[in-house]
Recover the amino acids of this structure.
């Protein structure tokens, strides 16, 4: 294969289209969430991920799992948790069975904000996808996104 191989060129073009679609969606959602709820996309994602935890066995996520879910490094996730904790949206506490572990939970204030922001996020996502679908290079990716289903829990 060479740098001008049509298969590589098509692959690179597909990757560029995917990156462009992601960037447009994220930028649109970011503007709307910031304007209406003073939340960034990452803050919203973190609240959403942490709100899905439960008290049962394996119900709390480790910071690495949270970082993977919000697509940030562990250190960036920790900084984000600290910012949201400072705003009263999250709280941390020691694991009752393993004093080395620290759990992070969404506060009632954080859950209320998340509940208010969820329809805004969903509407902004729909708007961004509808706008992207008008672009012939992005339309096939939009169709794929629209057919995706959430993965089933293990």
């Amino acid at each position: 294969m060479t740098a001008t191989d049509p298969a590589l060129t098509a692959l690179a073009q597909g990757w560029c289209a995917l990156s462009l679609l992601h960037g447009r969606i994220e930028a649109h959602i970011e503007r709307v969430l910031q304007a209406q709820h003073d939340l960034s996309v990452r803050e919203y994602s973190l609240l959403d991920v942490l709100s899905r935890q439960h008290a049962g066995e394996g119900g709390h996520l480790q910071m690495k799992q949270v970082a993977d879910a919000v697509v940030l490094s562990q250190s960036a996730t920790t900084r984000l948790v600290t910012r949201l904790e400072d705003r009263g949206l999250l709280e941390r506490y020691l694991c009752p069975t393993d004093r080395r572990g620290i759990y992070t939970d969404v506060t009632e204030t954080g859950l209320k904000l998340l509940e208010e922001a969820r329809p805004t996020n969903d509407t902004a996502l729909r708007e961004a996808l509808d706008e992207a679908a008008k672009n012939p290079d992005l339309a096939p990716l939009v169709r794929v996104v629209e057919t995706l289903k959430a993965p089933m829990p293990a």
Remarks:
- The mean pLDDT is 89.
- Residues 129 and 145 are 9 Å apart (CA to CA).
